[in-house]
């Protein structure tokens, strides 16, 4: 019998992130439809983390036959004080049919109009941001064809 864990994780706001999408490539395949979102830039702002996302990262999404989008984001953040932070983000998005149609029409689908959750992880060799290396996060997502928004919480 497994030991009982009697704790509930806490959440603390880490940052709000917006990634701007420069292009979207759609490729049907045997595993589902692949959507490659090319990151054109973006912004990160939070209590202890501020910076710009560099162009050139991406979000490789696989939409399965079950309608679930599997997210795989890779991006580089340059903090306002010059540090580089690598960001990887895995997650899931599930939308009701009416939200899918609005998304395809270019609208922003808000967090309360779909299920969109992810877990950004941050890595930096800069001593000022090494605290991020050991921080696990949970994000609530909002998506469109031109931008993705994350409200990121550190899990305590």
Describe the structure.
This is UPF0311 protein NCTC10485_01210. InterPro entries: UPF0311. Belongs to the UPF0311 family. The protein has 156 residues and is mainly beta. It has a single domain, classed as Porin, CATH 2.40.160. The chain is 5% helix and 58% strand. It has one helix and nine strands, in the order ββββββαβββ. Strands 1, 2, 3, 4, 5, 6, 7, 8 and 9 form a nine-stranded antiparallel sheet that branches. The relative contact order is 0.21. The mean pLDDT is 97.
What attributes does this structure have?
mainly beta; Porin; 156 residues; single chain; UPF0311; 9 strands; nine-stranded antiparallel sheet
Task: Provide a quick synopsis of the model.
The protein has 156 residues and is mostly beta strands. 5% of the residues lie in helices and 58% in strands. It has a single domain (11-155), classed as Porin (Beta Barrel).
Tell me the layout of helices and strands:
Elements: E1 11-29, E2 32-45, E3 50-53, E4 58-63, E5 69-79, E6 84-94, H1 97-104, E7 115-123, E8 137-143, E9 147-155
């Amino acid at each position: 019998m497994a030991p009982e864990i009697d704790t509930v994780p806490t959440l603390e706001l880490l940052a709000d992130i917006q990634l701007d999408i420069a292009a979207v490539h759609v490729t049907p395949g045997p595993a589902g439809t692949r959507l490659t979102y090319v990151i054109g830039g973006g912004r990160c702002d939070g209590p202890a983390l501020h910076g710009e996302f560099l162009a050139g990262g991406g979000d490789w999404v696989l939409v399965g036959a079950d309608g679930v989008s599997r997210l795989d984001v890779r991006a580089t953040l340059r903090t306002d004080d010059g540090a580089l932070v690598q960001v990887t983000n895995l997650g899931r998005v599930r939308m009701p049919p009416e939200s899918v149609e609005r998304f395809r029409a270019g609208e922003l689908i808000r967090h309360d109009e779909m299920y969109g959750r992810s877990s950004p992880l941050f890595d930096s060799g800069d001593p000022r941001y090494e605290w991020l290396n050991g921080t696990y996060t949970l994000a609530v997502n909002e998506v469109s064809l031109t931008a993705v928004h994350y409200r990121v919480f550190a899990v305590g």
